[in-house]
Amino acid sequence: MEDHTFVVGQEFPDVKAFRNAIKEAAIAQHFELRIIKSDLIRYFAKCATDGCPWRIRAVKLPNAPTFTIRSLEGTHTCGRNAHNGHHQASVDWIVSFIEERLRGNINYKPKDILHDIHKQYGITIPYKQAWRAKERGLAAIYGSSEEAYCLLPSYCKQIKKTNPGSIAEVFTTGIDHRFHRLFVSFHASIYGFLNGCLPIIGVGGVQLKSKYLGTLLSATSFDADGGLFPLAYGVVDVENDESWMWFLSELHKALEMNSENMPELTFLSDGHKGIADAVRRKFPNSLNAFCMRHLSESIGKEFKNSRLVHLLWNAAYATTTIGFKEKMVEIEEASPEAAKWLQQFHPTRWALVYFEGTRYGHLSSNIEEFNRWILEARELPIIQVIETIHIRLMAEFEERRLKSNSWVSVLSPSAEKRIIEAISHASTYQVLRSDQVEFEVLSPDRSDIVNIGTHCCSCRDWQLYGIPCSHAVAALISCRKDVHAFTQKVFTVASYREAYAQEIYPIPGKIEWRKTDEASMDDDIQVVRPPKFRRQPGRPEKKRICVEDLNREKHTVHCSRCNQTGHYKTTCKAEGIESIEQF
């Protein structure tokens, strides 16, 4: 039917196939149909334009579902009379047109739908119709948002069944069990973090764009090679201080259940006050630092100066107080306002040299990298978002486990590269030994003191990164020590393999969940209804909380009637003022 022509005697598998074919022909040839009779055994139609002689009649064959064309009268004399829309181009027709494209590209935009339909059929359809078709198409492929919330308890049950030791809990609110929050952390992720990752956790959130919105909160870490390691994630109906307190409380429970002693952790975040308060309460022995990417984006947005951003990064990476102060002077020279603005963020929370803990050189979290995993799935129902992460986790764990099997070095590739570079620089240094553990290392432009007993160097690189610097390497080689043995364990291949040692197992499809639930007749599985808040029409605001907003002074209102602050003239309750004014 590529040419959309019909002949008498032409057959179709059933009435639905015939109706689709005649609709497709009407749209492609730009004429409107007027259906005279249409049921399961016959179909009569003519051209809707007055005076046009075109007619078609088709009937069902006896004892078979097959439909055949009995008569075809006249040719179109109406011309192309349907350019700016078509009655047959219904939402259902558009869904059938875009379904395969949607499967391949979730972010197939309504404007692209309009463009493709106009290109192929030469008709223009309303934007709203394309948008509705996309919504209906996504629901047909991935299920509705309402169904996704309803299936959440069963999905969580399947996670815990297929991946023993994992945590998957859905929380509701109200007597009608409206969705409130969801927390998921696979046992493989918890084990891998506690046994093979750096003791650093990045936390952050990203807005979802499905019918009922919500925010995906996540906690990630770094493996021994510096790669992204997702630890836990959840969905909340609203991102606020309370939801962050809840998320980090659930994270604390997950870690506490799987470790005898809670490790000393460093949290990286965008400066959200709720995160800082939650870390302080739930992880009192941990440290909270600014993610430098967010801080640098904030100063760049505030002052529109790329040089300031570059100087800020240099100051953050400075390994000595002298070097840090020099960079801060440069920032002040470039922009006194920026230097003053930066004073609201204490260097102990963003500068490497002043940070009380160890960040292993990681000044920024990898939350943005994790968010890119679900960037295309943000418009899908909640289960599809979570399943997208699950599928990616399975693939990443398997791929990295296989990749590490071919590594023959003691350290991970990134750490090994750093050591090789340090050895190369160390070959030009002169080493003077003071005693069994202390050395003076002379390089062309400086002199540094190295203590291999306390793993310290006066340049501070060894302490800040956990990997011997070039001065330490020179000292270690001079006394025939194994350089790799003086590198922190978190950078070894053994730690990397331990991080991905546990497997993340697949979860059965929806049909299997239903079969299992019906067989077990589990009364504990409650029905979860969607949250009351729905996506509003129109373009959503993109503003997120920025770190510079945290300490910004709030605008104080002033009353012109009583000269007091905190209220306006219209809400002033001062006695006697009104009568005086009237007098």
From TrEMBL:
InterPro entries: MULE_transposase_dom, Transposase_MuDR, Znf_PMZ, Znf_SWIM. PROSITE patterns: ZF_SWIM. GO terms for molecular function: zinc ion binding. Residues 439-480 form the SWIM-type domain. Keywords: Metal-binding, Zinc, Zinc-finger. SMART domains: ZnF_PMZ. PANTHER family: POLYPROTEIN, PUTATIVE-RELATED, SWIM-TYPE DOMAIN-CONTAINING PROTEIN. Signal peptide: none annotated. It comes from the Eukaryota. The lineage of its organism: Eukaryota, Viridiplantae, Streptophyta, Embryophyta, Tracheophyta. Pfam families: DBD_Tnp_Mut, MULE, SWIM. This is SWIM-type domain-containing protein.
